[in-house]
Every structure is written in structure tokens, then in C-alpha cells.
């Protein structure tokens, strides 16, 4: 199997850290980035990763410059994993556009900037894989998850457009859609929820707070297993041996259930309304 060089964003905890450890265990080359000082990911350097400070919310010119340096110092990159992200909650009527924009700066625009910075390199060598870490949350709306959920919906669209525009250049894109995995994503220091005061939403807000307090540490997904599957799928080995890489993949039983239900519900709408839907064309 060819040795690949992977660049993963957001490596100081959770999926990012596990990606790097699994990549190294396969004797591939791992480049770990963190938005903070590289000392935050020193333990990954200690086990063999190259480490860089990369804030994907920085201006595009800065992201481009760091990426160029990384490509130059590491002799190229084969796989980019757009992993960095966090959860910002909020109810539609209460959440400000500034809060949504801040969420998008990391979850959406950061991934776009990192990917755009690498595409010239991938085009030049006519190969490369872009991995987006979406979410099962990118498939269905919830009452109080507007910034996060919509950011993951957006990633789905960006991924599909990217994929359609670079396939002829030998470049691939995949989006993984994990369910709940036991990382730091719902740690109270990481998950944000702006206080608000519209009484009609008190019950929904209380429900969300209760959910967030209960979920951290009791998620059903094992990140180590999830990462192993994702890397197998990108490399076409292990559980994915002999299979073509799909354009998207739910990860975890909860994600499968939720995404399958959304597909079935949508198909049921298409079936029930087919005559009406198709009645709008010119005669
Ligand atoms: N765990 C789940 O249940 C789950 C489910 C679906 C999707 N995901 C997605 O998986 C990705 C990784 O999350 P995780 O579960 O591994 O959570 P995590 O342990 O909290 O790790 C997220 C990483 O993102 C980076 N990051 C960049 N900007 C950030 C910001 N403004 N605020 C907080 N973190 C920021 C951080 O790394 P640095 O500080 O090193 O940059 C952090 O280590 C995210 O995109 C998340 O949306 C997770």
C-alpha cells in the first residue's frame, strides 16, 4: 500500500488527535495542526507527527501561506481532513447572525479556505483527497441547533460542488457524517449556547440544556473505532478493501438511523406528491 501524507486540522483533542494516532500506526505520514501554539499538540509531535499552528479562521492569505510552507516542508500532501469544528446552539428567532457567522467562520469558511489552499497542489499532481467531517446533524433540523446544524448542512453542499468540479482532475472529496461520538465536542468549555430571553422558548431551551448536560461522556460512538473506519474508507483498505470510496458516509448506528429515516421520509413525500410535483412543466 502506498504511503500517504495526511494533514488534519483541529488536532488538540477528539477525532483530530485520534486521526493522527491511527494514521501513524499505519506508517503513513501525519501532519497535525492546531489553531493554538504547537505546544498544544506536542504529544503528537512526540509520537512522530509534524505539527503546525494553523488557525483556519485567519485571513485566506495567512491560511495559504501556512499551507504552502507545510507542502514545501513535507514534500506534498495526499489527504486533507477538514476536522476542526465546534458546536454553537441557538433557537432560530433568538440567535444572531453574528453568532451564526462566527460558527461558519470555523465549521464552513475555515474548511473552504484550507481546501482552496491545497487545491492548486492537488491539481498540479492530478491526485488528492479532501475529507470533510460533517455530521448526522447536517441531515435534519433540531429546534435549538441553528448555527451548528446549518453549518453542517452547508458543508454537504460545498462538498458536493467541490466533488463535481474536481473529479476530472483526479481529485476526490468525501464527507463523513458521524452520530454522537465520545470526544470533547460537548464539553461545557467547547459547546456554546448564547443566553436569550423569549419566554415562548423557555421549555425548548431547558430541554437543550438538559440534553447537553447529559450527553457529554455518554455518547454511544467510540471515536477510535469511528476514525479507523474513516481512514479505512479513504485508503480503501481494512473494512473498505475492494470497495470504491463513496461520496458520503454516515458513521455510527445513530447516524445511520437518522439519515436513513430522512431519506425514507423524503422518498415518501416524492411518492405521495409525485403527480402534483410533476404538474408544473410547460405542456
Ligand atoms: N463528536 C461528535 O459527536 C461529532 C459528531 C459529528 C461531527 N463531529 C465533528 O467532528 C469534528 C471534530 O470534533 P470532535 O468531536 O473531535 O470534538 P473536539 O474534541 O471538541 O475537537 C474539535 C477540535 O476542533 C478544533 N477547533 C477549531 N476551532 C475551534 C473552535 N472555534 N472552537 C472549538 N474547537 C475548535 C479544536 O482543535 P485545535 O484547538 O487543536 O485547533 C478541537 O480540538 C468537528 O467538526 C465536529 O463538528 C463530531
TrEMBL record:
<dbReference type="Pfam" id="PF00106">
    <property type="entry name" value="adh_short"/>
</dbReference>
<dbReference type="GO" id="GO:0016491">
    <property type="term" value="F:oxidoreductase activity"/>
</dbReference>
<dbReference type="InterPro" id="IPR036291">
    <property type="entry name" value="NAD(P)-bd_dom_sf"/>
</dbReference>
<dbReference type="InterPro" id="IPR051911">
    <property type="entry name" value="SDR_oxidoreductase"/>
</dbReference>
<dbReference type="InterPro" id="IPR020904">
    <property type="entry name" value="Sc_DH/Rdtase_CS"/>
</dbReference>
<comment type="similarity">
    <text>Belongs to the short-chain dehydrogenases/reductases (SDR) family.</text>
</comment>
<dbReference type="InterPro" id="IPR002347">
    <property type="entry name" value="SDR_fam"/>
</dbReference>
<keyword id="KW-0560">Oxidoreductase</keyword>
<keyword id="KW-0521">NADP</keyword>
<protein>
    <submittedName>
        <fullName>Putative hydroxybutyrate dehydrogenase</fullName>
    </submittedName>
</protein>
Amino acid at each position: 500500500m502506498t504511503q500517504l501524507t495526511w494533514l488534519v486540522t483541529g488536532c488538540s483533542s477528539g477525532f483530530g488527535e485520534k486521526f493522527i494516532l491511527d494514521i501513524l500506526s499505519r506508517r503513513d505520514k501525519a501532519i497535525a495542526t492546531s489553531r493554538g501554539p504547537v505546544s498544544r499538540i506536542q504529544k503528537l509531535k512526540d509520537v512522530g507527527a509534524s505539527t503546525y499552528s494553523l488557525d483556519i479562521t485567519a485571513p485566506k492569505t495567512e491560511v495559504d501561506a501556512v499551507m504552502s510552507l507545510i507542502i514545501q516542508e513535507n514534500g506534498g500532501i495526499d489527504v486533507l481532513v477538514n476536522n476542526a469544528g465546534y458546536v454553537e446552539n441557538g433557537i432560530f428567532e433568538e440567535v444572531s447572525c453574528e453568532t451564526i457567522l462566527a460558527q461558519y467562520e470555523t465549521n464552513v469558511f475555515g474548511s473552504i479556505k484550507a481546501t482552496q489552499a491545497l487545491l492548486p497542489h492537488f491539481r498540479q499532481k492530478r491526485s488528492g483527497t479532501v475529507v470533510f467531517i460533517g455530521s448526522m446533524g447536517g441531515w435534519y433540523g433540531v429546534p435549538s441547533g441553528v448555527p451548528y446544524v446549518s453549518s453542517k448542512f452547508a458543508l454537504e453542499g460545498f462538498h458536493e460542488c467541490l466533488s463535481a468540479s474536481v473529479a476530472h482532475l483526479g481529485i476526490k472529496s468525501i464527507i463523513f457524517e458521524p452520530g454522537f461520538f465520545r470526544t470533547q465536542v460537548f464539553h461545557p468549555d467547547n459547546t456554546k449556547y448564547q443566553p436569550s430571553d423569549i419566554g415562548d422558548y423557555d421549555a425548548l431551551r431547558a430541554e437543550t440544556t438538559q440534553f447537553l448536560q447529559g450527553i457529554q461522556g455518554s455518547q454511544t460512538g467510540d471515536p477510535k473505532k469511528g476514525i479507523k473506519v474513516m481512514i479505512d474508507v479513504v485508503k480503501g483498505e481494512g473494512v473498505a478493501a475492494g470497495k470504491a470510496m463513496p461520496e458520503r458516509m454516515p458513521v455510527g448506528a445513530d447516524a445511520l438511523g437518522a439519515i436513513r429515516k430522512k431519506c425514507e421520509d423524503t422518498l415518501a413525500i416524492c411518492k405521495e406528491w409525485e403527480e402534483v410535483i410533476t404538474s408544473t412543466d410547460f405542456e
